[in-house]
Please model this.
Amino acid sequence: MAIGGAILASLMTPDLTRFSRSGKDSFAITLLTILAGKYDVNGLAILIAKELHTADIISIIT
Model:
């Protein structure tokens, strides 16, 4: 779970922090992309598990 969110965050962060004006802005955007990445990956896995009628979410994420 952590790896999928981190990969997605590492793909989004450079594009968004490019427009930051201060260190606080960069930190906020980095935190936002990490959280968004985790929620996207985990939320998508939950939706797929519900559609497949299974409770094995971890195997879907990996």
Notes: The mean pLDDT is 80. DSSP finds three helices and no strands in the chain.
